[in-house]
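A note from the maintainers: we've had questions about how concatenated examples are separated. There is no special marker in the raw files; a new sequence line simply starts the next protein. For clarity in this README we add a label.
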Amino acid sequence: MKKRLTIFLFILISIIVAEGIIAQDKIITKSGTTIEGDITSINDEAIFINMKVNDNVSKTFVSLDQIEDFFVEKVEKLRNELDTATFFAIKLEDGTGLMGKIIFIDKSKIIFDDNNLGKITISGETIVSATKENKSAFYQITLIDGNELHGQIIERRKNELDIQTKSLGKVTVSVKNIKKMREVTQGSMKGGEYWFPNPNNTRYLFAPTGIPLKKGEGYYQNAYVVANSVQYGLSDNFSIGGGIVLPVVAFLTPKVGFTVAEKFHVGGGAILALMPEATLGILYGVTTYGTDEHNVTVGLGYGFIEEEFTKKPIINLAGMTRVSKRVALVTENWMVPYRDYDSNYNQVTGVSTETYTDKYYALITYGLRIMKERITFDIALVNSKDIIEFLPIGIPYIDFVYKF
């Protein structure tokens, strides 16, 4: 069982990673051959490209004297939507972020007028993302002195912005006085105060929601100090993670998730725990209805130890609602199947027989989630029919999550 699950996870992750790193750049040779992949660099002699061959990534190059034409996907996309009057935000492979206007585009290079660096030349293959400024977007702007502005950019010049705010009207801000600026939704403004997005919308205390992590998003969670886990989005629909429970348990947590309607999300995955004496875990599916701020989830899963699965599903019902800028209410409730064995001794025959009944054991949790922009603290209580007998309020549960 352990071997089959490990092989399955390895193949799944390898396929998704391979698909994620291959772009659709193209090289057309003079012989008529088309090579598709991810162009990694261009020099005066050759173009270097990563291409997928039989689900494997192969690195190769083509001499310029053999090339009839080539296309860098991100450059072509920018060419098609080019507006020299509009600002673009460009992110490069080395993490550099640029903001400014595109002056000129050729086959593989962009002449860019950055707000801070002035006119620079960007190699197309080094561009990770390029986003055209949304003129109807709503922004949160934090100034160097700590004050905040919220509004739309009605005009952007190289050294200053004109912001249309609700309370102050039109405000002109010098770029050098801006500490941080990000796009937000107008719905995030409540009572004149900006409510940052829920930083922990993909899980409750332990159970996942159907809402997927976005590509490049991730989080670290610590519960009871000894339980540590990390989850990272390899794509908008697939994330992989794992962790350890000290001192001896390690686990893997692959998950897929899809938003199928505005407030309807579905997902599934596995929790595979590796212990010195056994392999155990859960294969599960979840359905979530609601938003990042207010939602409920129903989940079903089958637990297993080695090659033996539970006869009945594990049932989970969870919910979360945000009641203020920094506080949400969270509940997570489990119905865990088990077998209740009963031994019967026949005094006449002297034979003992054992029978069993399949039952469910209920665990409920209820608590608070304290939120900051990238951090959440969960303070909750775990209860059951047995716990309530010696501790009526329940056993305390605490965890900490940092989103990156």
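[label: protein 2]
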Amino acid sequence: MNTTAILLPALALIGWTLLVVLLVPYRRFRAVAARRVQVCDFALGESANVPADVSLPNRNFMNLLQAPVLFYALCLMAFVTGYVDAVSVVLAWTYVGLRLLHSVVHIGYNNVMHRLVCFASSMMVLAVLWARLALHLAG
């Protein structure tokens, strides 16, 4: 298998992260224009005056910069070591799909239990990816 195949899910998640970050100024500008908030409400991040629908894209963006760092490191390590097989690529795409679903739930209707299922599932997939890589490197 071509080792670059493991980089495609990483690039997809980076692309998704960049799309999510575009929602941040979009929602903020709309809220200011509608006089739901004032510009000063964003002076130090987001004040308590910022409505949830305006702050959710920023929260989700921050979330996409947390656990996925482990995914990016894994993809690079798998690529560098040449340990890329079909199972790893499928698991990587599964991880990305679950992260996208998590974002859609979070920014969309924001059901905490649905978010939890998406997040926990993605973390389990990530743990399996790391375990497979660790076993390969150890053996």
